[in-house]
Amino acid sequence: MKLPRTILPWLALVSIGLWDAQVVAWGPHPEITRAALEVLPNLAEIKSRYGEHNVNALLQHCWLPDHRGRDLGRFYADDYLLIPAMPRHISHVMPHVEAAFEPYFRRALQALRTESPANALRQIGPILHFVEDVGAPPHAKANCPHHGELETWVNASLITISGYEPQLLGTTEEEACAGLLRRIKALVAFSAERADQALALFPDREKIEPIVLESALETARVTADLLYTLFVLGAQQADLPGMARLEVKIRAPSLPGNNDQEPRVVLLGTSFSTLAEADASSDTAFWTGTAKWRNLPPGSYRMLVYRPGALPAVHEITLEPDTNASVEVELLPTDPPGNLLYNPTGSLSTLGIEQPDRWAWSPQRVGRLWQGATVLLQPGARYQLGVKIRKKNDIRVQFLVTTVAAGKPPSEAVTQQIILWPSEGKEAPEPVEIIVDAGASSASLVPQVITDVSLAEAIESIWAVLLP
What we know:
Elements: E1 7-8, H1 29-38, H2 43-50, H3 52-56, H4 58-61, H5 78-81, H6 98-114, H7 117-134, H8 137-140, H9 147-152, H10 173-201, H11 205-236, E2 244-253, E3 264-267, E4 273-275, E5 277-278, E6 286-296, E7 299-306, E8 313-319, E9 324-330, E10 360-363, E11 368-371, E12 375-377, E13 382-389, E14 396-404, E15 414-421, E16 432-437, E17 442-451, H12 455-458, E18 459-466
Parallel strand pairs: 1-16, 2-9
Antiparallel strand pairs: 2-6, 3-4, 3-7, 5-6, 7-8, 10-11, 11-17, 12-17, 13-16, 13-18, 14-15, 14-17
Helix pairs in contact: 1-11, 6-7, 6-10, 6-11, 7-11, 10-11
């Protein structure tokens, strides 16, 4: 069926669940985080060092793994979730979640020692979430029935651990990591036992709620131990002799529709990555900002800088001991300019696996379905969607546009499938473009490519551009 090169109304065709949708979630994450922060004996020092607003933002960052694949404004959740030691998303339930604790603990500690306060506190989000999640009774007990009820039947207003004295889980990174794993093992046993107690009383919510609360309180104590240990060890190595500082000044094309997005800076082949923060006064025609590191090991690096709407740039840098290095990077615009899609060519890969950044795949009867990162759309705006393919046969390119109508109670999300390829009368590599109206509702867009070859072999580029 030929798609018209005109404005397509976003009609409700079929509801399609996005991969990152969370049906249920351990409800009191912010309350557990707040309770843990309130008992830290060094909280005033922490707020002074990292900024009170950054510390308070932990109440949002503790949700990060439940937002995988999503654009959260200035950053993507996956900027902090996908790391070389954990390059793919993981289940939040025992026993699979066990693999997450050590990598994310070490990465959070590294961020506290090397990155800006905003980046460091965001990077605590993943380990904070996974530790809190495993304290939920149905997460601690594998294959637990009544999962939704046992993680939401709790009065979050009762979560307080006033008087608890947080434990330092170790005086070195190795000791602390081992101590955290022991503490989590005990928490899992505690909450799995509560799951059994609650299931025996199901569906008596009045009797089950106090049992789930016991798990929430113990989870808050373990969370307090985690945060106390991270902040103590992170502060111990504020400035190490023999290490280097690096400042990366970035100028990138303006990105209409998402210009607050912060560039990602990666030292390829290492565990070091961070986001640049915008300058206070930035030219409307360009985005300008700076990424900063301290305590970097001296040596030679290949540094990649990337931001949606711009082409990736790679620079060779050498860091000498006890020096402050500075690099200026100017990013060139994509073709077409203003492309809102992350990694639109599928050629960017920084995690040490044979998979393009921000593209996940699932097996199909024939080939794979590649799905890109979600783009948030502006109500009432018009967008140009397009693709230029490399291989004509056995390829399908489409966008999922999900809308949620305003009102109370909130409406259910409705997803429309917009097919760009195959397109009647088109030959590869001739581009295919259509224009869509965003309408007045809250909406998001996700690109998908179904192919039996790699994404970079299938398409030359795919784009979504906000029209003036």
